[in-house]
Amino acid sequence: MNAAQPVLAGEGISVRFGGLQALNNVSIEVPRQAIMGLIGPNGAGKSTLIGVLSGLLAPTSGRVRLDGADVTSQPAQQRARRGLARTFQQPELFAGLSIREHLMLAWRVRHDKARMWQDLVLGRAWRRPDSGENERVDQLLESLGLARLGHAPVAALPLGYSRLVEIGRALAASPQVVLLDEPLSGLDAQESEQVADVLYGLVGSEGVSFLLVDHDVDTVLERSARVMVLDFGEVISVGTADEVRSDELVRAAYLGDAVDTATTASGPTDKKVGHA
Amino acid sequence: MIAAILAGFALGGVYALASSGLVITYVSSGILNFAYAALAYFVARFYYYLHVQHGWGLAAAAVVSIVVTGPVLGVLLWAVLFRFLRLASPVIKIVVTVGLSVCIGPIAILLFGNQPIVSPPGLAPQPVHVFHVLGTDVTMDQVIVYACAIVILAGGAAVLRWTDAGLLVRAVVDSEAMASLSGIRPSAVAIGVWSVSTFIAGLAGVLAAPIIGLDINSFTVLIAAAFAAVIAARLRSLGTAVVVGLLMGIATSLVERYLPSTSQFTADVIPSIPFVFIVIFLGYSLIRRGVVREAQSLGGPLDRAIAPQGGSDAALARAASVAAAGRRLTSWPLPVATIAVVAILPLVLHGLWTGMVALGLGYAVCFLSYTIVTGEAGIVWLCQITFAGIGAVVTAELATKQGWPVLGGVLVGGLVCALIGAVIGFATLRLGDLYVALVTLAFGLLVDNLVFQINSISNFGAGIAVPPPGFATTDTTLSWLALAFFAVLALVVATLRRSTFGFAVSAVRWSEPAARTTGLSVVATKVWVSALAATAAGIGGGLIAIYTAAAVPGSFATFSGLIWMAVLVTIGIRSTSAALIAGLSFAFIPEIFATYLPTSWGEVPPALFGLGAVLVARNPEGTLAMHARQLEQVMSRRRRSGSLVDVLTEQTGELAGAAPPPDLAPAALGKGEA
Question: What is the ipTM of this complex?
């Protein structure tokens, strides 16, 4: 593993849906042990890019590298087993499982794949889960504030909790990199701060990297080591938060006048002045 | 040649009418009506009842049955049933209309009598006038079919395209929500659509009767052909459905003309033509598009936005959450208690009734197949009975012809089914719920027509003898043997539920994208769960064959399988105890009717089973789970701790003391202060 090598990279990715060029020659590098921010107005292609990186969408052209290896032709589940996890803009939970079971499943797929058949054939399903699994799941539930809800079914959870379960499921697989598609929307300021703290903490303690997409531009700029700005499927700026803030193109195309007020307590809607 | 094509146009015209009625209701209400052929049969049978049995004039009988009864039936069904289904999950929609199809036939027999009908009249006056056109004979019945097809299809297209009524229908199809905001009453449009659709069903039924015969089984061909046309139309395109319907009619007619009419092969091929069309169109779509699904196409963005939890899974999601909450209760005490009670039954009962326990347990083992594939994986298969038939046939083949121990035959029968199940699971991977149901129905009917008819398998209808194992020659020991099989498979289901693989099945069921990005293989999960489900059905079939002492393929007809499903769903699709109770009910109830009630009551049990499945529209969990949940609610009210609402309430500090229902509370808590 080369520390300078990005943990996840997209190279020259283009996606075309019929007549619509959703992404045009976009390259992105998610550095190791850091948060990479991705912002852009609605329809800029952020979710499409996450779809391509996670393997759910095939790019028209371009390559995806995970930990240096070319995974462009690998399906989503193989990328997941190599340490790539993601969350969804509309939470995609497994309505038949409890919160805890979401995390257990993700942990086992990565760390104890043999259980898939051993549970049934050797009756392991009736024995207690491994201590390693329990420890990890408990710790994640605790840090996400879900400890007391562990056995609750997810079907009736409010949006904010659903997002936390998705993040927990992603992290339970001990990933190298997690793609977070608007993890903070639906959370209030305090919850948002709490989740951002958890993510930030994991970067330091476990060396996980994140690609963070969110409408809460303040949080993204504040927490990310580097930020990329997409507009109409093209990269218009990449750099540190300060570089992006002062980028003329970004000011013109996306942040507009709101850049000056970004440090004040204005709401995120003020900044979404891009393209309706 | 010309005669064959003209005859083909008549059959094709009936197919085209039927499939256009199906497409209209699917497009406007999102419901693919599996009871369509049954409705057609009901109206045709009523027409025969009035015209032939009661001597009404042709016109009066036609008006009362087709013009009045058909639409009234449609509106009635919409009012009491279909309007509640619009936002239901695909599984519920399929089950409810399948239940309806199961109960309509028996109800028609109860109402109109059970006499054999040799040559039912169509709409032409008797004796049927014959025209001579282009050197061939064309009957008045055929001419009437051409006229009806042209008038209805062209008229319907014109109404949809150029009239205000058509505009209203198209508006509601595009977006019910937007249409109601514009002042249109969607319910008025729905009433119109359902009455037109059942009118067309009735007309198609009456026109079809002289061609295909008037009994519920011959109408299966009608429904299979209509479904094939609808699949080719990808459920939406009226024009394609009509063209494919006509083509199938012509193909059938040509096959009839050019294959030797006396051969068994011809007799087998003719009813199989719709399935060939189904395979061709689905294969073509899959190769061209990669996936064939139906869900995303209904309504507009506003409809999707205001649909609870993003759409039709809401009801099942709620059921799933309730089921998960009640899991403690239904986990092991109930199945263990049920099995214990059933173990005592053979000692308490005697004679025929002990045998019914053995037979019922055979059914129960088959029903576990639904518990696995539909209850756990959320996939609707309509061909479990076919697997049971295959299991029975393999058992007979190995035990009687090859001299194997009979239980070895049962197990190998299960394995053969596992293989076929895996293939079906794989082939239907990328199909939407409705298509999977249709494909499995087609598979079942195809095996009925092509495999189960082979004389070396069916032994000319009598079936190949199956000896009981040496240690279980009495009904009592046979019951215990079947119970042992059931207990083992029920344990497998229970283990599946708490196993990692079971979690994976649930994951794939509820979100394929999230399952894949969690590292799960959708292909492997679906294929394995399919194989497991098919195994259960195959083993059950073997056990049934042991009880009946012969493997009679005719007793495993696909349409009887719909009754199986109706019975199980009524009692509960997710619980092993429900499978056990459903199996016994399916054996006992008809036998009780046959023993203690007049023969004419014989059609009541299937009607009851079908009605039970219809009630699933109001209670998706089934009666057993419903009572379990009520019990659980009473108990949890006493405990008052650890529930989702309690914890959320405590965590958010809001709604303290209030006890809203679980599915409402979290929405209110969504933006609560932490």
Answer: 0.89
